[in-house]
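Bench notes, afternoon.
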Amino acid sequence: MTSAAKRAQCTKCKRPVKVCICDSLVEIEAPLELIIWQDPTEAKHKLSTAPLLNLSISNSRLLVGDQFSFADIFADSPVQQCALLYPLESGSALISEQRSDINKLLVLDGTWKKVRRLFHLNEWLKDLPYIQLNPESLSRYAIRKSPRADGLSTIEAAVAGLSWLDDTTDYQPVLTVLERMVELQQQLTPDDVKRTRH
């Protein structure tokens, strides 16, 4: 294989052709709009799950930037119809009876440090109704570490959030592409440097 062939990228998943994961992508349309806000430095990370999430949820948008206004994200939607997926310590946590009111879900993509920075730069985020997840199992994203024991990758968190808002659709198949990416990456990583969860 020539060096040019080795560097060739899949035009859809943007990964090297030899580790293309498009065969594992499952596309689902949610009954609400999913907006993914990605930290600019996270956008450069080759193992980010935000692009995969964007490909998996057909009615999703992927935005990259440090600062956006409420209108940039939600247009003219009433705040009561918007939700943030983030474990805020104060504010208005959504309850089950409010789920049907939500038609736009915002997910922040980046490490915990990067997401906290987005909050610092965009104070209005703290005023949004929010969903606080309580994961029942550890993340499957074994190739990157989280400082939180209950930390999830962006694609896992979004699947959990969408599942909570819409219990009529099975979003779990979306995670097939994450599992495939992890599997391929671990095959390429020497055993002595693999990052695994215990």
